[in-house]
Amino acid sequence: MVLLGGHIVVQLFPSAITYLALIPARTIPFVWNLITAGYVEQSLHGVVASTLGLLFIGKLLEPIWGSREFLKFIFVVNFLTSVCVFITAITLYYLRTQENYLYMPLSVFHGILSRFLVGIKQIIPDEELPLLKIKVEWLPSLTLLFSIAVSFFTLESMRYLPTLIFGTYMSWIYLRYWQRKPEKNLKGDLSDDFSFSTFFPELCRPVIDPIASIFHQMLYGRTEASNEAQGYTLGGASLPGSDPIEASRRRERRARALEERLAVDWLATASSAEGA
What we know:
The longest helix has about 30 residues. This protein has a domain of about 190 residues. It contains 13 helices and two strands. It is mainly α. About 10% of the residues have low confidence.
């Protein structure tokens, strides 16, 4: 409803895009567009694609995360992505002195779909797409790779590419370090199979891991004392969430929850068809 409502408002009142979209030159004082820009689609096909993605992919994540955490994920990642896009636009303007970086209205929701793919990667990384025979864990990476390739053939890549790149990365940061696990009173997912290097081919990982470890220390930032107080294992042993057995158990539980959800949806659809 929010997507459809935002699209209708922009179509009926075109000037509203000035206040709702992210226009870097006007973000100050219109700071609220760091939030609103992520929920406004300017094109009809964007509304359709975003709505379908939200219904189908969101339907898999919401039962596992819970409605509150699902909405929190969308809001936090959307805001952080907008902040990163704003900084990128300002930086590009100073580097290239082209005013279109400052005045181009940026407002898309379909970038959230790439963020959902990161969630799917976390939950069922080893599942394969039936027709393509591609593991789910590669969907975020392939989506970014395809988007970057397309950007070489379009003049408006600024409208979507930064949103996809930062949206994917911010989603991973949120799920890796910040998402709360009420059942364990912990945050994040520090398992090896959800590390940053898993977004890249195995050949690249020896190069990426040392760099990623620097940012890991910055983002994780726990002291040895606080780790010991909360029962974390140190001295070369695995941190919470990084134990392979525990990670495997979590994946199995998530996969079962997902299968149960799909089974319920299938039964509901079959019942509706019989009733018709």
